Amino acid sequence: MLEQYRVTKYDPSRRSVSGAYSVDDWTSYSDVGKSFGGDLLTEERYRSVEKAYLEVAVSFLEEAHIRELKVVGLENHGRSVSAPTEGGLISLQELPAVLQSLLREEYWCKLESASAFIHVGYDYYMYIGVPCRCFAAEALALKLGLFPEAFKSPHFNDAA
User: Fold this and answer.
1) Can you tell me whether residue 130 is helix, strand or coil?
2) What sign does the dihedral 100-103-109-113 (CA atoms) show?
């Protein structure tokens, strides 16, 4: 049984009863240079949030003793030269570069193993599944301004 999380920059207290996020906020790297709620999304601000996502993802896997994940369902319609190979293994050291490309929508894939996963969804949502509760990673997420919530990934297939 996996512990599943949704890790985002979106404060859960700002969601409607239906779960919709009620604040005008950026959702993509392509939003750099645009204003949201009167605040300009700069490259520096974007990179700060992106860095937090990368650190937190690695932290969850490290705490759960997961050393690598497999590339599943690769979609590389933009023909990114940095895209991994379908079925390829991504080590913890390689994970930040792959996640950065996923967050920037350069290509899409799921990263999975028999006991863990990381999925990046639309609107800057990251889903993490690990075999145990990761209290230190949860605390790191909060410290870095992210919100880890118990939430099943919409990309999770129990048979994977």
Assistant:
1) strand
2) positive
